[in-house]
Write a sequence for this structure.
């Protein structure tokens, strides 16, 4: 095996330490002959109960709201009576409890995977629950993150949501996975926890436990057999890194201002005293309002929405809060929108398009936003996801302004919209580029497909071209064009985006210090040169290499 493995750096920073692979999933022994089906049924239910309880306890302990929500959802699935009944059915057909649980969960997971889209993603959750329940039945340790009693670099095929959610960043120094992509669940949570991460690094699975390795979450390099001195140096650099002391505001070394903003799902994602304690952040660049709607059978009413938005606006007096209207459909299905079964949901009725069939849902949301904005003195901006044409942008702008909200924007997530940014800007006050979706649609690569991680790499020059043309349109119109996709969380890419003419960057809280610190070390002219070298590269890897080696 080579001494340097290559994957995709998806969460910035460096770390070094002993590698440890994820606890293995239990291996089923040969089936037992069942003599007492009632006892097997009781054992299967006890296993599901145990797993549900354990996940609920972990949810209660989880400090991070995203982690808590994932664990709570997992615990609920474990308690789903339909799954218990499927296990009973398999026991009735003659299987012992462990094989019955395995069969029932595998069948359900296969069904979800065959359904595709968001449901397919949930298959991994079911398989994770299955493995936990089977391990309990076999008296084996739960599969998952090892606990050797010292810090380590975790290597895994891919991480189950429950594992990612409970990672303890004091123990786990960095993540390396064989699968996953830049917008995968693992990558997003790694960034939220501030852990360096490399995904799509297949060869890492062959690294022996205990091997001393160095991870570079910027370049995607995983270096094997490093010395103890490298480990000590990396630890010292991380502890004393300038990123730790970044105080804001966002600007280049020569003072070119670039507001750094937060991506949040609700007021719970803000620091306790957001008005004063925002670590160099100037506000919220993406409030993903769909989190209030997810998992609900009825749309939240006007009062509930007003209250939720008011909490965010009140936490940020005088600061910018960019609220995105409901982004449902595709990977975020909402039962009450009762969207038709679509053969290809990512290309179907999603984002702003849901207002074609359910305009009243958008109307209620805008009314709630307007009332909340009037009840607080945040600087409220409103934008729509998945805008495709200037006409859609104009219609949306008219609706928003009819509610007395004055700052209206369009997200640029569809290549058509990027190509017509100038025309869209005739109708709106700002653009915000969602690089996660713009990347998937530009490259025709499903953002949930880890095998296409190289195409989904936000360093793809084609994506950078579209971003550059939006920034030019913004400059010509004298209107701001920000980035709120995950690309803004990558410190090197953030410098490139600024060099392309992007005016603000919105990211998870954990990314702010690194992005802000990196930006403060380069002049605006340096950023322009870095952007030119990225645009001139033949592919994503070459673009990243050109920028990281030019520094
Ligand atoms: C994006 O697509 O880049 C974006 C910010 O939106 P989301 O990830 O919520 O789809
Ligand atoms: Mg999007």
């Amino acid at each position: 095996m080579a001494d340097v493995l290559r994957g995709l750096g998806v969460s910035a920073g460096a770390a070094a330490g002993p590698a440890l692979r994820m606890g293995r999933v239990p291996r089923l022994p040969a089936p037992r002959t069942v003599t007492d089906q009632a006892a097997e049924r009781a054992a299967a239910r006890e296993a599901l109960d145990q797993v549900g309880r354990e996940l609920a306890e972990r949810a209660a302990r989880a400090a991070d709201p995203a982690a808590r929500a994932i664990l709570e959802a997992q615990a609920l699935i474990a308690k789903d009576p339909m799954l218990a009944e499927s296990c009973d059915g398999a026991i009735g057909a003659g299987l012992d409890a462990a094989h019955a649980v395995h069969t029932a969960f595998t069948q359900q997971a296969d069904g979800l995977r065959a359904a595709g889209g968001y449901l397919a993603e949930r298959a991994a959750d079911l398989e994770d629950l299955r493995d936990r329940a089977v391990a309990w039945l076999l008296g084996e340790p739960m599969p998952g993150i090892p606990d050797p009693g010292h810090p380590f670099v975790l290597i895994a095929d891919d991480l189950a949501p429950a594992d990612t959610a409970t990672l303890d960043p004091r123990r786990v120094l960095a993540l390396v996975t064989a699968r996953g992509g830049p917008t995968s669940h693992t990558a997003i949570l790694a960034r939220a926890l501030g852990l360096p991460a490399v995904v799509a690094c297949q060869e890492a699975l062959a690294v022996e436990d205990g091997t001393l390795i160095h991870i570079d979450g910027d370049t995607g390099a995983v270096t094997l057999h490093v010395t103890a001195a490298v480990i000590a140096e990396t630890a010292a650099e991380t502890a004393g890194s300038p990123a730790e002391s970044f105080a804001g505001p966002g600007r280049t070394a020569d003072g070119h201002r670039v507001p750094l903003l937060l991506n949040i799902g609700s007021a719970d994602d803000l620091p306790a005293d957001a008005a004063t304690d925002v670590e160099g952040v100037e506000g919220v660049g993406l409030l993903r309002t769909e989190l209030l709607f997810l998992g609900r059978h009825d749309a939240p009413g006007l009062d509930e929405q007003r209250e939720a938005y008011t909490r965010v606006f009140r936490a940020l007096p005088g600061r910018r809060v960019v609220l995105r209207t409901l982004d449902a459909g595709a990977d975020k299905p909402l039962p009450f929108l009762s969207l038709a079964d679509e053969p290809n949901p990512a290309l179907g009725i999603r984002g702003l398009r849901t207002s074609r069939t359910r305009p009243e849902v958008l109307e209620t949301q805008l009314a709630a936003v307007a009332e909340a904005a009037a009840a607080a003195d945040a600087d409220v901006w409103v934008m729509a996801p998945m805008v495709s044409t200037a006409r859609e942008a104009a219609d949306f702008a008219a609706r928003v302004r009819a509610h007395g909200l004055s700052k209206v924007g369009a997200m640029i997530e569809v290549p058509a919209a990027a190509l017509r940014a100038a025309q869209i800007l005739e109708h709106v006050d700002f653009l915000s580029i969602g690089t996660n979706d713009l990347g998937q649609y530009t490259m025709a690569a499903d953002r949930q497909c880890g095998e296409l991680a190289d195409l989904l790499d936000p360093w793809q020059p084609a994506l950078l071209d579209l971003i550059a043309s939006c920034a030019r349109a913004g400059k010509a119109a004298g209107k701001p064009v920000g980035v709120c996709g995950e690309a803004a969380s990558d410190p090197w890419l953030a410098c490139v985006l600024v060099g392309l003419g992007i005016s603000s960057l919105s990211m998870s809280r954990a990314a702010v210090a690194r992005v802000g610190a990196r930006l403060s070390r380069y002049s605006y002219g340096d950023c322009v040169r870095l952007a030119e070298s990225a645009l001139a590269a033949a592919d994503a890897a070459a673009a990243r290499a050109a920028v990281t080696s030019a520094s």
Notes: The pocket of magnesium ion (ligand 2) is lined by residues 385, 413, 434, 436-437 (CB under 6 Å). The mean pLDDT is 88. The longest strand covers residues 14-21. The two ends are 29 Å apart (CA to CA).
